[in-house]
Structure formats: structure tokens, C-alpha cells
Write a structure and sequence with these properties.
By secondary structure, the protein is of the alpha+beta class. Helices cover 29% and strands 21% of the residues. This is Phytanoyl-CoA dioxygenase.
């Protein structure tokens, strides 16, 4: 069932040159009104239903690791729901990614729903690209909250300009990454930007931009949908850690280092 008109998902967003420049400078940008609030409201119930159906984390909060306290994480929802596929395949969202990255087109790496439950812990400082076997930095994530997200819900915090900082790129999300990166980023005097999100807002951040999120002290879950976009001409890189080996098998089935990153799971989402 289609729950939002194609124009709501595919009409180009008015992205200004100053926003593109800010993304290049800071490694992230928070955009207002990326989607109409009603469009987000329309898709939220289906995404939430699929998260509940497909989630495999059922331990009580006190028995979970720091990583698992941070959020419930369910990937490739587009393969389980035609409604979610509509949103993930939005050319409006993908075009923003291509314009921010300065590439001719983007393809899908994968999607992820990230739900931080009430009482959920911090998301430790990390850079996403630690997990991805990609040959360049032309990749980014849209972070699209499915409700208004005040500070008490734990929106993302970005270390501005940290995508040029190479320390900590070998650290997975952990207590260690939180401690080491918090210290290192403070020593480098990176400005940490934390803002609430209105319904319909979204942020885009580069794969090497360090980010973090506070715990959710609100009464409701912080429901977020993400899509990772990669340059349509991206090449698979040789994995440098076990997590990249796992991602190579899961996200690029049948591909090997040196191949175009174009398995059946990685369709082009936007190319003019």
C-alpha cells in the first residue's frame, strides 16, 4: 500500500550552496523540512512494526553491553516491507546525498532502523566507516527521526570537522571508543554540535565524521530511520577488520575487493 504520494518522496529538495559548503566543512549538516511531517507520520507505524517483528535483542537493559544499550538495530527493512522500500528508495533523499557528496549518483549500501528505548544508554563516540569496506570517503548517512526529538531523547552530537581526524578510526562502538575519542576530540578542540530535531528534519553525515548520542531519558522511544548512501561508482575495498569482513558478506554478497559495489542489494537510488 502506498501511503504517501510519489511527489512527497521524489520532488527535489531545495538544497542551497551554503548547506553543501557546510557539509564539506563540518562533515555533517542538519536540514530542516527534508520531508513533510505528515509523510514521516505516515511511515512511522510500518517501520516500528517491522522493528518489533525483526528485532532479535530481548535481554533486559541491565544485562546488555554498552553497544546494545544504545539502541535496537534492525537493517535492510526495505527487503521486508514495500512501504519501507518506498521511503528508502526516495529519490528526494538520495539526491540530497549525491549533491552533498559531490558525486554523479548514489546507490544504497543498506538501511537501518535505530530505536533508543526509554532508559537506553549513550551511543559511544565512533565513525561509521570503521564498519564499511569502501574504497573512498564518498558515503554518508541520513539520520531521519520519526518523531520530534528533543535533547532528552538523545539526538546525535557531531564533532564538527572531525572527518579529517584520523585518530580513532580503528575503534568500534564501545566503552573504549567513548573514553578515547571523548578525550582526543576535546584535546583537538572540535566543536560538538547537539541540536533537537523537529519532525521532518534530518541530518546527513560523512562516514568518517565522529558522532555520539546521549541516553534517552524521555518516556517514549527515540525512533530513527537511517539510510547509508555510497557513490554510485564506489569500489569494494579489502576489509581491514572483522566487522568489515562481515559487512562485505552481508551488504555486498558475491562481490570481492576491487569490484564495483553493485550487488543486487545495492541499487542506484539517484542518478540524474
Amino acid at each position: 500500500m502506498t501511503i504517501a504520494s510519489p511527489s512527497a518522496r521524489d520532488t527535489p529538495y531545495d538544497l542551497g550552496p551554503e548547506q553543501v559548503a557546510r557539509f564539506a566543512r563540518d562533515g555533517f549538516v542538519h536540514l530542516s523540512g527534508v520531508l513533510d511531517p505528515q509523510v514521516v507520520r505516515d511511515y512511522e507505524p510500518e517501520i516500528t512494526e517491522k522493528v518489533i517483528e525483526l528485532n532479535t535483542m530481548h535481554l533486559p537493559m541491565e544485562e546488555r553491553s554498552t553497544y546494545n544499550k544504545a539502541f535496537l538495530q534492525v537493517g535492510n527493512l526495505w527487503r521486508h516491507s514495500e512501504q519501507v522500500r518506498e521511503l528508502v528508495f526516495s529519490s528526494r533523499l538520495a539526491r540530497i546525498a549525491a549533491e552533498l557528496l559531490g558525486v554523479d549518483g548514489v546507490r544504497l549500501y543498506h538501511d537501518q532502523a535505530l530505536y533508543k528505548e526509554p532508559g537506553g544508554g549513550i551511543t559511544p563516540w565512533h565513525a561509521d566507516q570503521y564498519y564499511w569496506p569502501l574504497s573512498s570517503d564518498r558515503c554518508c548517512t541520513i539520520w531521519l527521526p520519526l518523531q520530534e526529538t528533543p535533547l532528552e531523547m538523545g539526538p546525535l552530537s557531531f564533532a564538527a570537522e572531525s572527518h579529517h581526524f584520523e585518530f580513532g578510526r580503528d575503534l568500534p562502538i564501545s566503552d573504549e571508543s567513548e573514553a578515547q575519542l571523548q578525550k582526543a576530540l576535546a584535546e583537538q578542540e572540535f566543536a560538538v554540535v547537539t541540536e533537537p530535531f523537529a519532525l521532518g528534519d534530518a541530518s546527513y553525515h560523512l562516514g568518517w565524521t565522529f558522532h555520539h548520542a546521549g541516553g534517552n531519558v524521555a518516556a517514549d522511544p527515540r525512533r530513527v530511520m537511517t539510510v547509508i548512501y555510497i557513490d554510485a561508482d564506489m569500489v569494494v575495498a579489502e576489509p581491514v577488520n572483522e566487522n568489515q569482513e562481515s559487512d562485505l558478506a552481508a551488504s555486498f554478497p558475491g562481490l570481492r575487493p576491487g569490484d564495483l559495489a553493485a550487488s543486487p542489494l545495492n541499487p542506484v537510488l539517484y542518478r540524474p
